[in-house]
Amino acid sequence: MSKLNPRQQEAVHYADGPLLVLAGAGSGKTSVITRKIAWLIQERGMSARHIAAVTFTNKAAREMKERVQSLVSRDLTRGLIVSTFHNLGLRILKSELKACGLRNGFSILDGADSKEILKEILRQGDSERDLDAVDVIHKHISDWKNALVLPEEAVSTADSDETLRAAMAYGGYDRMLRVCNAVDFDDLILMPARMFKEQPRILEKWRNRIQYLLVDEYQDTNGAQYELVKMLTLPEGKFTVVGDDDQSIYAWRGARPENLAQLQEDWPALKVVKLEQNYRSTGRILKAANTVIDNNPHVFEKTLWSDYGYGEPIRFSALRDEDAETEWIASDIFHRRLQHGLKWKDFAILYRGNFQSRILEMKLQSLSIPYKVSGGTSFFSRSEIKDLMCYLRLLVNPDDDNAFLRIINTPRREIGPTTLEKLATWALKREQGLYHVCDDFALSEVMAPKSAEKLQKFKAWLDAKREFCFGQNSLQAVNELISDIDYEGWLMQNASSPRIGEKRIENVWQLVRSIERMLEKQEEEDDGASDLEAVIKKLVLLDMLEQQEEEDDSDRVQLMTLHASKGLEFPHVYMMGVEEELLPHRTSIEEDNIVEERRLMYVGITRARETLAMTQALTRKQYGEKIDTAASRFLEEIPQEDIDYLGIGVQKDEAKEDAVAEASIANLRALLD
Ligand code: ATP
Ligand code: MG
């Protein structure tokens, strides 16, 4: 266990009032949080169940919990809350259902689901134009929720036709969510915050429960999260928050780095500790990061130094196109691993957008390099996973109209749109959910008896599944559900090639395996009790890929977006597509928001411990067209003497280079065999 420096110790040992640890990347902020939890339990004798720590991603929460458990014996950590903000909100909502106007078994909608509901609301309104604007309106609503603005207030403060339309839709949308017994992601924070404001007795109860609160990555909290923290910790301010304004990269999702400064106003007694030693990177990497971020205006002055030696130059490689770019990275990793006796998991490849990973994944696969993609919601957005999740959602929440509509004809049951419209009208009249009225005996009077029969059959079948699902053999029931509907056959039938069909089937079973593991874990933790409903809720919330990582710390190259890499560290880092229009991103250039992109660059650079390489694809396919790219402006902001420029000549010699790369990989393969 490393020895804390005096400043870190000061931060760990101060628990009598509000504390902010403000420091640059790799200075041990997260370490302060874990050590402080251990200290509160061991030295202060606090019960773990009165401590809550909040982080930004599920992966980070998991790592934090593991670190605490390596410092404190397991029985002393029982009841400790370490979670994301959203999971904390969910926990609060679940135990305060009534106060929040929810019923048991409520659903959590992801972005795509909530957009579907919104579309429905807009359709009931007037124009086609609104339908086109669904993304814009959705964003408005999300922004309002993140700033704790209610529909009425949004309407009264709307300053343009567009915002007024969005504000009107907001009210309808929220009502619809309540009817469906559903919440969206933003509600997970907004609803507890509002409830605390309106119901002091419940707030008091939670203040009693959470007597010390710690928040990591504080610079990325939004308005609603700020309020939640504030309400929970008033009046004494028993909290520690840690953050780095230079790593605020979620403004587009409502994060407010100003919250750091706001703290000083709201808590005059706030103690601020600054950390200056970086324990992560070589001097050269740190210098590059510092000089880049120096180009941004600063509210807080920070310094950061490292005594880990100066290290290798930063490599920059400009390649012919995306194919050559990914090829270069893959073969570089391949060589370095062999040369230096490294593990695959010592390498991370970071990119600006998820779309960049596709070609990279193919390249890694073709070279048999094991890899793992983390972050993002790609697994859950696969249609086969969405289908199955909707079946599961409908199992736990029969009021979930959205889930019902998604699966009623998947696989095809020949229930046409007219039938569904009639069903919806009927449901509205009865003030019940779509699923509930499927076996209403009067249905055959409003639609063809054959259609009514189909609906009735569907409901009888799923009701029977539900009974089994919540018994002992819940997993078996899930398996049967899949075979009853011959989902595998349906997937094969609808796939453009057998390989794609098989891949989809594999994904489905991957989800089932995750459910199985989660149920087992629950049994271990809760003395043999398992609760499929809780597992399904968790699945909806958790990123599936992160879930996989929990069990899977096998040796793989790590792939993720720059955003998802926040808080993590790797010995060897590759940043792909360090180009104008990608990093900084085109929309940010258009919106003149280079500062946020520069922070993203800073986050990327500071993930690296020993070596850092950056690449550019000189031509890149965009919207089906090949365009020439320019190296990112941020590259010029790095001290040029620290950069080793490679591969600029690749264009002339491309055929030869490729042949050489291929041959050397073949050689290495032969060596390995
Ligand atoms: P980020 O801003 O990227 O989230 P951070 O400030 O949270 O970084 P940590 O992740 O806590 O930094 O720490 C960075 C690295 O430094 C980790 O590997 C951690 O184990 C190590 N570290 C922290 N404090 C010390 C110390 N006092 N001595 C040695 N190593 C340390
Ligand atoms: Mg950290």
UniProtKB/TrEMBL annotation:
GO cellular component terms given for this protein: cytosol
Residue ranges annotated for the UvrD-like helicase ATP-binding domain, each copy included: 2-282
Residues involved in ATP binding: A23, G24, A25, G26, S27, G28, K29, T30, R280
Molecular function as annotated in GO: 3'-5' DNA helicase activity; ATP binding; ATP hydrolysis activity; single-stranded DNA binding
Catalytic activity: Couples ATP hydrolysis with the unwinding of duplex DNA by translocating in the 3'-5' direction; ATP + H2O = ADP + phosphate + H(+)
Superkingdom of the source species: Bacteria
Keywords carried by this UniProt record: ATP-binding, DNA replication, DNA-binding, Helicase, Hydrolase, Isomerase, Nucleotide-binding
Enzyme class: isomerase
Residues covered by the UvrD-like helicase C-terminal domain: 283-567
PROSITE patterns noted in UniProt: UVRD_HELICASE_ATP_BIND, UVRD_HELICASE_CTER
Function: Rep helicase is a single-stranded DNA-dependent ATPase involved in DNA replication; it can initiate unwinding at a nick in the DNA. It binds to the single-stranded DNA and acts in a progressive fashion along the DNA in the 3' to 5' direction.
Self-association and partners: Homodimer.
Family assignment from sequence similarity: Belongs to the helicase family. UvrD subfamily.
Name of this chain's protein: ATP-dependent DNA helicase Rep
Organism this protein belongs to: Alcanivorax profundi
